[in-house]
Write a structure and sequence with these properties.
heterodimer, A: 321 residues, alpha/beta, Rossmann fold, Alpha-Beta Plaits, 2 domains, 12 helices, 14 strands, 28% strand, B: 245 residues
């Protein structure tokens, strides 16, 4: 069952193309991650799906509702967490949640009970009567997510939910996101944290310069660049003088000596460990470590988008991690 | 029902967060009071009753336009305003809720000179029903003008500058200080394009009986202004704040 369908979406601001002809689908109940550096077009895409911005071209449906034609109807089933915690500074946590509930037409008793429930769930019960401006960054983020959940939406849009907050709060938010998925809520998450996307998303789309470069599950994305198998061995003694012998022994594979005490066997086929162990054992060399090397999601991202990992790292540093 | 809940809570939130704050209450009292005292000192022995229409109009105009322009720009810069744009409520409900608080604040502002005057003179000659309606219409049109200013401003200081840019010329053109008939001929059409001109004329009629135009005509024109400004506000928010295609 599809929750979101985006077809040939485009957004231009004058000569600048922020989102360039992207299409994707999000299934009900999955966590879909949008991974890309700052300025890639993630927020522009969220703004168009949530009805805050009109697409230059393309079509968007959320749970079958055409967002361009019936934005308000679609917004009723959405929970939206913008990239900034934008609740009301003067109001306390509880009142902020109740106010957000009222915007969705919830009655007083219903909104107060839901607000209490969410403060409890987000471990903010003690801070419920403190003004929002007195909250730490992590608490502000958590309350903003709670506010987006106040009307029990079917889909939650999270724009950089863990940017700029402490490690413990980030961890709690990630746990909450996974918990929400278990309750059946569809989650659209934008992030520039590769590890975050890898850890919690069912499917990930890479976005760069307004274009969607690739999408799929983590194994599917890995598959895009990994060909064959690679095993790295760490040995007790110098193996530099054994290069020719190793290559002769494993003639179907490619041997690369990495250092005095490590070498790599690469092959199109799976690599059994025992022949290599036996070979080294015969030479009275112990094996300290034998590990299959797989490309990381970061390697895949770099390879497919052409964006250096350092660009994402810089975004993370700017975000406060 | 859902729209009403949203409307009522936006209004309640604005009143609590902005209009009931001590600086704004004191501004709402001190500002009209200062205008009143200034006018009394400027023309000693002058009729306080004769000054009331102008004082009421000025108080409502200054209270409403600045408050709405500043609070909206403030909410926009903090991005909390996005919450209203993303909520499943119509733009009309949102605009009405936002101006409702300012209208109440304007009514409060408008009656400060009246309360002050009640200690000094008898006010039994005043047609209170007409005054209340006129103040309400001035507050509505001025609030909507404040909203239009807010749509054009990005920063709070810009909103304040724009407000003053429009308000001060309006004061001199609406017949408060100088009768419209005494203005240069080329400025008179401008005077008749200002809603406050009609509001002040109704107040003059209801308080001292020296109105120039028919009150019914003035109410009709004010109502037209209110509808046109409301539609213009809706259009501008839709065009400027929900990013265009």
């Amino acid at each position: 069952m599809r929750m979101v369908t985006v077809t040939n979406l485009k957004k231009t601001y004058g000569n600048l193309t922020a989102v360039d002809d992207i299409s994707f689908e999000i299934e009900k109940g999955e966590i879909f991650g949008f991974l890309g550096p700052n300025g890639a077009g993630k927020t522009s895409t969220i703004n168009m799906i949530t009805g805050l911005s009109r697409p230059t071209a393309g079509a968007i449906t959320v749970d079958g509702i055409d967002v361009k034609k019936q934005a308000k109807r679609a917004q009723a089933i959405m929970g939206i967490v913008p990239d900034e915690s934008n609740l009301y500074n003067e109001m306390d946590g509880f009142d902020n949640l109740c106010f957000c509930a009222a915007l969705y037409g919830m009655r007083k008793e219903e909104r107060e009970s839901r607000a209490r429930q969410l403060l409890d769930l987000f471990r903010l019960k003690d801070a419920g009567k403190r003004p929002f401006k007195a909250y730490s960054k992590g608490m502000r983020r958590k309350l903003t997510i709670a506010a987006a959940l106040i009307h029990s939406p079917q889909i939650l849009f999270l724009d950089e939910p863990t940017t700029g907050i402490d490690v413990e709060s980030s961890r709690q938010i990630r746990e909450l996101i996974v918990g929400l998925k278990r309750q059946g809520i569809t989650i659209f998450l934008t992030t520039h944290y590769i590890e975050e996307a890898e850890r919690i998303c069912d499917r990930i789309a890479f976005i760069a310069n307004g274009r969607m470069i690739a999408s799929g599950t983590v194994p599917e994305l890995m598959e895009r660049i990994s060909h064959g198998h690679t095993v790295r061995f760490v040995t007790s003694q110098n193996i530099q003088n054994l290069t020719a012998e190793l290559q002769a022994h494993f003639e179907e594979s490619k041997i690369t000596i990495q250092s005095d005490h490590s070498f790599v066997i690469a092959s199109e086929q799976r690599i059994p460990l025992l022949p290599a162990m036996d070979f080294l054992h015969d030479k009275e060399i112990d094996v300290y470590e034998a590990r299959e090397l797989r490309p990381s999601l970061e390697d895949v991202f770099v390879k497919l988008t052409g964006i250096k990992a350092s660009t994402l790292k810089k975004d993370q540093e700017r975000g406060g991690h | 029902m859902k729209s009403w809940i949203a409307f009522w809570n936006i209004l309640k939130k604005d009143v609590k967060n902005y209009y009931l704050k001590p600086p704004n209450i004191s501004w709402g009292i001190i500002f009209p009071l200062s205008w009143t005292l200034m006018q009394l000192i400027r023309s000693p022995g002058g009729s306080l009753l004769g000054l009331l229409p102008g004082l009421i109009s000025m108080s409502v105009l200054f209270g409403t336009t600045s408050m709405l322009a500043v609070t909206m720009t403030f909410e926009r810069s903090g991005r909390s305003f996005e919450r209203l744009l993303l909520a499943p409520i119509s733009l009309s409900t949102m605009v009405l809720a936002k101006i409702a608080g300012t209208i109440l604040f304007g009514l409060f502002n408008g009656f400060v000179p009246v309360i002050f005057a009640s200690f000094l003179i008898d006010l039994y000659v005043i047609n209170w029903g007409v005054v209340l309606l006129a103040v309400l219409m001035i507050a509505i049109t001025s609030s909507l003008m404040g909203l239009l200013i807010a749509v054009s401003a990005k920063q709070v200081f810009e909103a304040q500058t724009f407000s003053n840019f429009f308000r001060f010329p309006m004061l001199f053109l609406c017949g408060l200080f100088v009768p419209i008939s005494s203005l240069p001929v080329f400025l008179r059409p401008v005077s008749y394009c200002l809603p406050i001109t009609y509001g002040t004329d109704i107040l003059r009629g209801a308080i001292v009986g020296t109105n120039v135009l028919s009150p019914v005509l003035c109410f009709g024109i004010l109502l037209t202004f209110a509808v046109v400004l409301f539609l213009l506000c809706r259009y501008s928010i839709n065009r400027k704040w929900i990013q265009p295609a």
